[in-house]
Every structure is written in structure tokens, then in C-alpha cells.
Predict the structure.
Amino acid sequence: MASRNSSGKEKESGAKGALAAARGKKSGSGLSIKKLWEGFKSLAGTIAIFLILRTFLVEAYRIPSGSMIPSLLIGDWLFVNKLVYGPHVPLTSINLPGYAEPTRGEVVVFESPYQADEAALDHDPTPTLVKRLIGVPGDTIYMRNAVVYVDGLAQKLGYTSPEQTQGDGTVSDPLFEWQHKYEIKKSRFGEPPLQPTHDNWGPLVIPAKHLFMMGDNRYDSKDSRYWGIVPRENVRGRPMFVYYSFVSSAESDRPLSFISDIRWGRLGHWIK
């Protein structure tokens, strides 16, 4: 009789042990799923914060060409303030309010007007560009012998260093033809040329809600002279400072130039 009781107790103890083990496995599985879910939420939250910051506050931008030499160099990486002029909501035509308006003389990041010639080459017809704002709504702007005039006042020349290209300003281009629509005749600024050229065009009056952009390196810049005035809603932000800069591999004789040929003096350079 005692033997049977002992055997029963052993069976009961074994059943309880198996049940506890099963519960332990179930609990461990639930804990693992919970950890995965918490990790996923943390990662999703981080990504969401990054996208919000990138969309509405600050975004990095790389300078791919020499159109803004000497202000900006090929290989400069900038932080762009997107809040200042009002952030653009992606995949829409909506711009949120900013706390300032673009001012003549500022360096501005914007989406280019449509460029049919680039589309024909299978290039991006509306690239994001960085240029200097030369003309704001109501300005009368023109160029004579490579000097830009705004409302009759001569502006600073674009090229200011030996590294910049200085070409033939008498060259015309079919892309200049858009200017005829905005030209004014019989004004105190003189008659517009029959055929606009690189260094002689206008006077043009900048219409409301549009801006005229030019590169500082005037002879190596495809800008508003070619693709026209920029709608205000295309503005994306104002560059703040250079956070990283290196000599591009095309210009450097060092391997891994992004590490071996850093422009240390450019880091932290404030953009004016």
C-alpha cells in the first residue's frame, strides 16, 4: 500500500514538473516576443524622429559642382536650416510657414525649375541646387559686361579667386530665350539686347512670388540665366555651416581622399 502511494506521489510530482516546464517555455517565448516588440518600437521611434528632423528642421547637403566657388567648394557637406523659410511637406505642394523670407544676397537651397534640356539627356530635370539669391520680387535686374545690376546698382562680381573659370561672355544660348517674356523696354536702365548673352541680358522685372538665382562662379554656373526664375514654393532652406569637407577623388592624388585629403580649415565654416 505504501509502495502504491509512493508511486502515485512520484507520478504527480512528475506531472507538476512537466507542467511547470511547459509554463516556463511559454513564459520564455512570450518574454522573447515582448523584447522583440519593444526593440521594434524603439527602432521605429528613432527612425520617425530622424525623418521629422530631416523633413522639417535640418538636412545634410553635398556640394557636387564648382558653381559657388569660392563661397562653397566641391566636396563641402553642409547642414541646411529647413525651418527658416518654411519646410516643404514631401510628396505634396504644401509649404509650412517659416520665420523669415529669403533675402537678396543670401545663399539658398531650392528645387530647380523644370529643365527640358536635362530631361532630354535622362538627367534629373528638377535637381536640388544651392545658389545665391540675386533678385527678389519687384527688382529690375540686368547684366552688362559681366557686372550684375539690381535697380541700377552694380553688384559684387562673382569670380574672386584665380581658381575660378572666366569664359567668353559674348556667347549666347537658346536657353536664354525665356528672358524675353520678362524684359522691359524703354526704361532708364537701357534697352535689352536683341539676343541675350552670358554677360549681357535684361533688364528683367522679377514677378511676385519668384526669385532670381546665380552662382558666385559666374562662368561655371548654370543658373537663372538659363532655366529661369524660381517659384518661391521651390525654396527648401538656408545653408548654415560646413560640417565636413574633403578634396574630391577627381582632384586629389591621394587614395581614399574622403579620409586622407580632408580640408580641416573648412570644418565649421559659416556660410555667408
